[in-house]
Amino acid sequence: MLELQGITAGYDPRRPVVRDAHLALRPGEALGLVGPSGCGKSTLARVAALLHRPDRGTVVLGGRTVTGFRHRAPRSLRTEVGVVFQQPRLSADPRLRLRDLIAEPLRATGRRRGAQEAVAEPAERVGLGPDLLARRPHEVSDGQLQRACLARALVLRPRWLVCDEMTAMLDASTTAALVAVVEEYRRETGAGLLAVGHDPVLLGRWCDRTVHWGDIADS
Ligand SMILES: Nc1ncnc2c1ncn2[C@@H]1O[C@H](COP(=O)(O)OP(=O)(O)OP(=O)(O)O)[C@@H](O)[C@H]1O
């Protein structure tokens, strides 16, 4: 299970943007979270991905309570969650070639040996060939860069995926392609998915179940 229990979080403890949020994701489940712009979805998604420490509440991942860490969650737990954000250009180092961007989590976890081989599988999965892998972010389209960011999220083969408005900036065919990649990965690995967005139609089609912000958090 990936559980968020009573999460209060934000950027100023006096004015939290997420108040008392509860969410439980079963292994292998695809859960959609829908809410209006600015309600705090991305903040909660970052808490779920263990990238943002909540002011209050608990994250439980596979039975282990993850909150209480001082700055960042332990690496062994962070690598269990892959995350894709809405704006690939904000989450991609502009100096890196796409193949090195995809390899970032391998380097960050000290797995330098065999990194290029490990990149090949997710790169192929998202449809990036050698020509695109050799380019830097300014030399590719938003859709191609988001493909690389999805490959980066998959490279450590996480048990959970958090997709925060992953397709918001993309056209219909790229959206369909990226959703298909996530679904194929989930079929193969049994990974659970938290898909955050504001499009109930897309999330309704994609996910097993969709919850609305107002049902999981105080406003
Ligand atoms: N780094 C930050 N520092 C301060 N405030 C922030 C920061 N990031 C977000 N906020 C604020 O927190 C609130 C919630 O933002 P968040 O991005 O979590 O909402 P959201 O529901 O994902 O919105 P959207 O659907 O528009 O992306 C907003 O009022 C936003 O201005």
TrEMBL record:
Which GO biological-process labels does this protein carry?
transmembrane transport
- Keyword Transport present in the record's keywords: the answer is yes
UniProt feature coiled coil, ranges: none
Keyword Transport (UniProt) = yes
Protein name stated in the entry: Oligopeptide transport ATP-binding protein OppF
Give the species this sequence originates from.
Streptomyces lavendulae subsp. lavendulae
- Pfam families xref list: ABC_tran (PF00005)
Instruction: Give the keywords, sorted.
Output: ATP-binding, Nucleotide-binding, Transport
Q: Name one GO molecular function term.
A: ATP binding
Family (UniProt):
Belongs to the ABC transporter superfamily.
